[in-house]
Design goal:
Rossmann fold; 22% strand; 5-stranded mixed beta sheet; 26% helix
Length: 242
């Protein structure tokens, strides 16, 4: 962690030095916005901490802390009869308890409904402490965690939306999305059902009609189809719809 903080601090100072020459746009100094490493660790002493180390190349365990392992591929397979087959196989095979994490309460509700539709019913979880205190094999909670991991020594696995919806917009990139509420944003078209309402960035509100494969000269591409009041059905690449 110390090395990551030092690297971040050096990068921040370098960028500030590079951009601070424009007097028409004065910048705050890094010290006014971020804690130096020493101050951070002093402040962090008041909180409990878990140290997670990556496995060493020779297979030996780290001297201290927990050793994290990568998760197998768990991404939703949209066109499969059961899009959650990978996740189900993982849950059936692992002896570890599993915590599924959504990015927000809205996403948690969407995921809960989606999982239930395909036969999964993880117990609700309000906090990591509640997960540790529970005996449930699989739980669903909320946390702004970017990637999941396994802790074999603790018999625990953390699975985030990054594993289930690989390649979709993450919380760190939401600034690139138009200024609308994205708390319950669909992460994959397998979460949509025929007739569900959708909002297109240009064409407005409509009803989802399904998928269509079209070739517009660049090879066959998957498009979302929908209809809007007063006009016939339209198509777009599905990431334009929310």
């Amino acid at each position: 962690m110390s090395a990551s903080i030092d690297a971040f601090w050096k990068d921040t100072q370098s960028r500030h030095k590079l951009l601070s020459g424009d007097r028409s746009q004065p910048l705050l100094s890094p010290a006014d916005m971020f804690l130096p490493a020493e101050e951070f660790f002093i402040a962090a002493r008041n909180f409990a901490r878990i140290d997670i180390s990556a496995p060493q190349e020779d297979g030996a365990k780290a001297d201290s802390g927990m050793v994290a392992a990568a998760l197998p591929p768990l991404a939703v397979e949209r066109r499969a009869a059961d899009p959650l087959a990978r996740l189900k196989a993982f849950l059936a095979a692992t002896p570890a308890r599993v915590l599924l994490l959504a990015e927000s309460p809205g996403r948690r509700e969407t995921m809960s409904q989606y999982l239930a539709e395909y036969g999964l019913a993880p117990a609700p979880c309000a906090s990591f402490a509640e997960f540790l205190a529970s005996s449930a094999r699989c739980m669903l909670g909320t946390a702004p965690l970017f990637n999941g991991f396994a802790l074999p020594d603790e018999s625990l696995c953390i699975v985030t939306e990054a594993e289930l919806y690989a390649g979709t917009v993450r919380a760190g990139k939401r600034a690139e999305v138009r200024a609308t509420s994205v708390e319950g944003m669909v992460r994959d078209l397998s979460e949509l059902r025929i007739g569900d309402p959708v909002v297109h960035a240009q064409h407005g509100i409509g009803r989802y009609l399904g998928l269509a494969n079209l070739d517009l000269g660049e090879g066959e591409t998957e498009f979302c189809t929908w209809n809007t009041p007063g006009r016939t059905s339209s198509t777009c690449r599905w990431r334009s719809c929310t």
